[in-house]
Amino acid sequence: MAEIKSREKFKSRFGFIMISAGCAIGLGNVWRFPYITGEYGGAAFLILYLIFLVIFGLPILVMEFSIGRAARSGAGQAFNTLEKPGSKWHLHKWACLIGNYCLLMFYTTVTGWFLAYICYSLTGTFNKVDTSEIPNIFAGLLADPVQLTLFMLIVVFIGFIVCKAGIQNGVERITKWMMTALFAIMILLCIHSLTLKGAGEGLAFYLMPDFGKIFDGGWQKVIEVCFAAMGQAFFTLSIGIGSMLIFGSYIEKERALPGEAVRICALDTAVAFMAGLIIFPACFTYGITPDSGPGLVFITLPTVFSQMPLGQLWGSLFFLFMAFAALSTIIAVFETIIAWGMDHFGWSRSKSCIINSTLIALLSMPCILGFNVWAGFTIPGIGDIQAIEDFLVSNNLLPIGSLVILLFCTKRSGWGWDNFIKEADTGKGLKFPKWIKGYITYFVPIFVLLVIISGYIPIVTKWFA
User: Fold this and answer.
1) What's the pLDDT score for residue 6?
2) What is the distance between the alpha carbons of residues 112 and 316, in angstroms, rounded to a whole number?
3) Among candidate residues 234, 278, 229, the one with its CA nearest the CA of residue 399
4) Residue 252, phi-psi category: left (phi > 0), alpha (psi -120 to 50), beta (remainder)
5) Distances (CA, A) of 130 to 98, 117, 197
6) 65 by DSSP, 3-state: which?
């Protein structure tokens, strides 16, 4: 093992929990979770998601934190520090770097959409047009590369400014404020949604399980829903590409890591759950089908807000909360990339910020142009440029990276189970259950492989149909 160096630290345990939760909380919670829950039957899907979150998302999250804390480094040097001499586990650091870049290549653009929608809501744009014209507003945004680029650059600039200030003065301070504001806005929006006349019907759909909706389509439908729940539980935590590993490197050893991971999972799930409480009562109140798909947030809900009393206010607050959720992930992933440059190349924080923010801005342009100038470029079965980038991250780099981390922490050729358990259980609090070693070692890798395979089934089916 290499020598372990000194490291920047979080000022407080609260900061670590909120920043790690902020990394996990993002579009997967407030955009993907509500519409995919609607598509797969509401409460029954919610229960399956929670089960899969606990049985394999949580253990891998603990492993990422353990690697970071033991190595006192991000993905740029963590595997070099902990691996046995002559082994090749450190090659995964390049996949981590690529994964974080790929994520930000489209995440910065989508986050820019939320900033644009805040402006539209504050200026009353949705209230000034007929509801039939609202889809054209979103289409107009996507068709305008100048406007998309402007909002993307604002997002990159925010990430640059926050991360350049350092862990305590920048990332920790801003993210704690942002996450606190996020929860306050969500609670306010939840209270409002629960007062709508369709709240009872929406809550019944969301919270009363009807497993008949799953079994009605036969075993093929059951398998599809299980894979969807498995994938959502897996991707919501942002595990596999070092985005969580980096924050483990900034914390002390006073607390055992399983308890911290449980708290982060709880906050992550709470945001996704509250997003459903906000959206489904509004859908049933205004006659919107809950299975409206990805357009639920950008097309369907602006229509709802345009009809709602004080809709301009509620719409502005809703897209502000969406922007905060997305920006918390942007800042966390940006910090991962900056730390990679500092750890691997020995750059100063300022130099790493300048180089990486420039690269991220340039690499975000294909996604922007993919909605207009390069709109004709698609891959059959996957979609446009943004869908291709999302597919690379969600269906490949995240699950494959998680499999590498899982094997690194359980195999003798890697860091090994004993070293992992020692690090994870150091400190006060909940310990990692040692009796599930066999399950973690042999069954969780199978689950991860199934997630990877399931992502390719629709594509292969379309190619050979």
Assistant:
1) 54
2) 15
3) 234
4) beta
5) 43, 17, 23
6) helix
Instruction: Give the residues across from 379 on adjacent strands.
Output: 383
Query: Locate tokens 């603990």: which residue?
Result: 62
**Which tokens hold the place of 262?**
């449980």
pLDDT of res. 291? 64
Residues 37 and 273: their CA atoms lie apart, in Å, by: 10
Q: Is 428 helix (H, G, I), strand (E, B) or coil?
A: strand
What's the distance, Cα to Cα, between the start and end of the chain in Å? 51
Mean pLDDT by 10 residues, the chain (465 residues): 57 76 71 72 81 89 94 90 92 94 93 93 86 84 96 95 83 81 85 87 81 71 78 80 86 91 88 83 78 67 80 86 84 90 91 96 96 91 88 88 95 93 95 93 90 83 77
Q: Which secondary-structure segment (H or E) carries 460?
A: helix 444-463
Alpha helix (H) residue ranges in 256-410: 257-285, 295, 301-307, 311-345, 349-363, 365-369, 385-392, 398-410
What is the token pair recorded at 464?
């050979």
Measure CA 97 to chain center. 16
Contact (CB, 8 A) for 328 and 26: yes
In 72-91, alpha helices (H)? 78-82
pLDDT at residue 307 in the model: 77
Assigned token pair, 118: 């805040």
Predicted model pTM:
0.87
The Cα-based distances of 347 to 223, 336, 419 in angstroms read: 47, 14, 30
The single-letter code of the amino acid at 439 is: Y
What pLDDT, on a 0 to 100 scale, did the predictor assign at position 222? 77
Residue 331 confidence (pLDDT) = 87
Q: Is 146 exposed, middle or buried (0-12, 13-18, 19+ CB in 10 A)?
A: exposed
What contacts 113, CB < 8 A, 6 or more positions away?
141, 151, 298
